[in-house]
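Students often ask why inverse folding is considered easier than folding. One informal answer: many sequences map to the same fold, so there is more than one right answer. In these notes we will look at a single instance of the problem. The structure comes first.
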């Protein structure tokens, strides 16, 4: 059985084999749910892939002055080199 010690600041370390088995990464959010007065569950929600509507408004975020398509493409391609 895997075991961790709770620190004075309320922190725990997840055992490495659990992190590897569940594909957990640093910075990933975990959700805790109390099951009883001495037991809880930990959930590792999976990130959802962005949907096609997530790109709406992208052009508006890039700048407020209207530009021609060729100018946009030139700016975008400059980052590829």
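Output (designed amino acids):
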């Amino acid at each position: 059985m895997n075991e961790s010690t709770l620190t004075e600041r309320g922190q725990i370390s997840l055992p490495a084999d659990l992190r590897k088995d569940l594909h957990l990464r640093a910075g990933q959010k975990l959700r805790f749910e109390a099951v009883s007065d001495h037991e809880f569950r930990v959930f590792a929600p999976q990130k959802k892939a962005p949907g096609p509507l997530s790109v709406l408004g992208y052009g508006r975020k890039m700048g407020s002055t209207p530009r021609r398509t060729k100018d946009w493409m030139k700016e975008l391609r400059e980052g590829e080199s």
